[in-house]
């Protein structure tokens, strides 16, 4: 087999700015050792997120020029609607400015106190939008999905037996819908199998509960099904995606992921009554039915992106380039969540820095060192992001301490990734030198965005 190459040529380039290690040391100190507070211009390789960071194609940029900016009934809306319907098969397509806006509208209508929402793993904005209505968001993930070192094909699957028990316990009248997140972002970008989707659907049908998809990475999930699930190896990724959506009654989507655009999202629904309620709320909060918080040109770019993301050469390159990074790290003994997910590699900071306890934020220590050593920006997903305090002010750490390296779509080439590998291995070799951090300022909510740190000197 020959090398899998980037399935595109580069027409427009954006220079990245090189800095010295000394400069980076000063810059990160000034930013309170929080990579969210860095100026992007001081970052060489930015792996903070894969959201809204995709490179658009020449056809998408051409679509930007073709965008019809009519307030109502824009030509671009109908193109967008057709593209979404082709994949989802759903009756009502409602554009929103990003994924969380679709969530906000949906859960404002179906949520409320006394309501429960099961999901394989809620993404943080989904959880926040549910809890904002005083409803409860409950994660029902299979056991394998909770262990970073366990290799399995579909670690994003929902635990069906536990879902049944959950419905019996809470009562189907208190569960307005059940959700599956494909791929499971917060669980390491791990896919959900078609078998699991079918089984969850069966349970939902039996209890009269609609099944919704958080479909941000539907194409990556469909590709994993093609590669790993029996009976799908000869189906097109489009056909697999269509089958996934055929089991769903609705979906929320952030187009900033698998629609290859910088902004956008949608809500797709089959239920007429619910769609009417959502559209009423859309007009109050987002905009008119045919643009929903987006410009006509954005709708064009989404329509085109949804076509391109299902190209199998693209998906092969996409999944393989993330896997390549993961493989090289595993080979060198760097502990990561296995197997590599679709959009990111997650370093297991607990095993990487066993001498730094959770109270001293081992993930943050690695994140800072990756920046100082090589100008790479990653993000901590551990005690900084999800840690809580008990009554005595002692840290209650989350189950895992991770560092996420999210790979933007179509942005970096293999040599960028080789450079990232070199920097991580360098940091790994010197890991005994790494020290913990303490927080010197934090906001009451979502502290990871603005917290300030100081290295602990011993
Ligand atoms: C990004 C994301 C969202 C929220 O989408 P935004 O466009 O950032 O508002 C919801 N669910 C999942 C799984 C995501 O990855």
Please tag this protein with its features.
binds pyridoxal-5'-phosphate, 5-stranded mixed β-sheet, 458 residues, single chain, alpha/beta, 3-stranded antiparallel β-sheet, 2 domains, 16 helices, Aspartate Aminotransferase, domain 1, Aspartate Aminotransferase, domain 2
Structure description:
The structure is a single chain. With 458 residues, the chain is an alpha/beta fold. The protein folds into two domains: 175 residues, Aspartate Aminotransferase, domain 1 (Alpha-Beta Complex), CATH 3.90.1150.10; 251 residues, Type I PLP-dependent aspartate aminotransferase-like (Major domain) (Aspartate Aminotransferase, domain 2, 3-Layer(aba) Sandwich), CATH 3.40.640.10. The protein has 16 helices and 16 strands. Strands 2-8-7-6-5 form a five-stranded mixed beta sheet, with helices on both faces. Strand 5, helix 7 and strand 6 form a beta-alpha-beta unit. Helix 1 packs across helix 14, helix 8 crosses helix 12 and helix 12 packs parallel to helix 16. The longest helix has 20 residues. The radius of gyration is 22 Å and the shape is globular. It starts with 20 loop residues before the first helix and ends with a strand. The site of pyridoxal-5'-phosphate has 15 residues, from helix 4 and helix 5.
């Amino acid at each position: 087999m020959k090398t899998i190459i980037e399935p595109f040529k580069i027409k427009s380039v954006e220079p990245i700015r090189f800095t010295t290690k000394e400069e980076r040391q000063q810059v990160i100190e000034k930013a309170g050792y929080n990579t969210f507070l860095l100026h992007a211009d001081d970052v060489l390789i930015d792996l903070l997120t894969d959201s809204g960071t995709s490179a658009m194609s020449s056809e998408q940029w051409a679509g930007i020029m073709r965008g019809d900016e009519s307030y109502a009934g824009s030509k671009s809306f109908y193109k967008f609607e057709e593209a979404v319907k082709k994949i989802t098969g759903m009756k009502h397509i409602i554009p929103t400015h990003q994924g969380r806006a679709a969530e906000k509208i949906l859960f404002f209508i179906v949520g409320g106190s006394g309501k429960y929402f099961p999901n394989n793993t809620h993404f943080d904005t989904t959880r926040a939008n549910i809890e904002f209505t005083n409803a409860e968001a409950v994660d029902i993930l299979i056991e394998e999905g909770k262990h970073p070192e366990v290799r399995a094909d579909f670690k994003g699957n929902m635990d069906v037996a536990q879902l049944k028990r959950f419905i019996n316990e809470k009562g189907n009248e208190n569960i307005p819908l059940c959700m599956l997140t494909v791929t499971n972002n917060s669980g390491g970008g791990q896919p959900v199998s078609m078998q699991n989707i079918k089984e969850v659907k069966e349970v939902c049908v039996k209890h009269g509960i609609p099944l919704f998809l958080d479909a941000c990475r539907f194409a990556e999930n469909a590709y994993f099904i093609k590669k790993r699930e029996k009976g799908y190896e000869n189906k097109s990724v489009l056909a697999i995606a269509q089958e996934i959506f055929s089991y769903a009654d609705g979906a929320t989507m952030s187009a900033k992921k698998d629609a290859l655009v910088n902004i956008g999202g949608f809500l797709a629904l089959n239920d007429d009554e619910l769609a009417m309620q959502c559209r009423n709320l859309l007009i109050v909060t987002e905009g008119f039915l045919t643009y929903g918080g987006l410009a006509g040109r954005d709708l064009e770019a989404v329509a085109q992106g949804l076509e391109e993301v299902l190209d199998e050469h693209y998906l092969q390159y996409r999944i393989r380039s993330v896997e390549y990074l993961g493989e090289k790290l595993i080979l060198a003994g760097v502990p990561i969540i296995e197997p590599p997910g679709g959009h990111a590699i997650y370093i297991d900071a607990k095993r990487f820095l066993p001498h730094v306890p959770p109270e001293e934020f081992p993930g943050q220590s690695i994140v800072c060192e990756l920046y100082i050593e090589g100008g790479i920006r990653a993000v901590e997903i551990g005690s900084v992001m999800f840690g809580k305090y008990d009554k005595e002010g002692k840290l209650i750490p989350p189950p895992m301490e991770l560092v996420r390296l999210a790979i933007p779509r179509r942005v970096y080439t293999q040599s960028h990734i080789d450079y990232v590998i070199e920097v991580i291995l360098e940091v790994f070799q010197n890991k005994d030198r790494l020290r913990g951090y303490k927080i010197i300022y934090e906001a009451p909510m979502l502290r990871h965005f603005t917290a300030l740190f100081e290295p602990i000197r011993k």
